[in-house]
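Working notes for the structural subgroup meeting. M.R. asked for a predicted model of this chain before we commit to crystallization trials. I am recording the input and output together here so anyone reviewing the notebook later can reproduce the run.

Input as submitted:
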Amino acid sequence: MTHPTPAAPSSAAAPAPSAWSLINLEVETRFDIAPDGRIDREAAPDGSPGPLMFLAGCCEGVAMRLGRQVDQDLAAALSDLAADEPPLGDPDSAPRHLDRYLALLGPGCVASRGLAYHLPHGTSAPGRAETVLSGSPEAARLEERFARDGMPPALAARNFHQVADLWPPYCLIMQDGEIASMAFASRLGGRGAELGLETLTPFRGRGLAALAVAGWSSHPALAERSLFYSTAHGNHASQRVAAKLGLRFLGPTWAFASA
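Returned structure, recorded in token form:
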């Protein structure tokens, strides 16, 4: 269920997609949403159980979706509150009814705050590095090596235990023949893709994460999808990457789930 704030009419053509259309597409990309509007699960390739409730704000309004497990009476009460939410366009803004949502969803419910950005195709980043895109001959050779010899210990320690965990389309930044940073499709929908980002500890602070994001944004397999970059509110390193790339901030997100 979505609750837009009416915008003033304008005769000028919008130079870019509206924040409202993008934040709704980001929600659609992040989750598998049933025809009745309920969240069934996190979108592929993750596929894990979805939250009880998800709010995504922008300067034009607030989009809200409810999980399949929320009963009809509770859903009606939550929807009424969400309809009263003002736009959430600031990174530090919080829902007006945050405490009420938590109370209604029960004592075991916790809220996780995130930030959503739009990632344009062909984003550029300062610096240069060796780049490997999934689907390329170089990527095929790496995948063959990993399947034969096992994943490098540094990747396995970050939960990349097998080739399938690389989640294509991906972009790898290489340093001396080893993966230093990687951007991959953490969520892949029919119209959008959300980026996941990992830089291995020895290579942090070198600008490689920004290069991985930029490379991913130019992946041919993503050309027909809108791209999104999201991060936790407390992940300041990730926010610095977004700032370095000049990404357009869409708004804060709030995921409500059982602890």
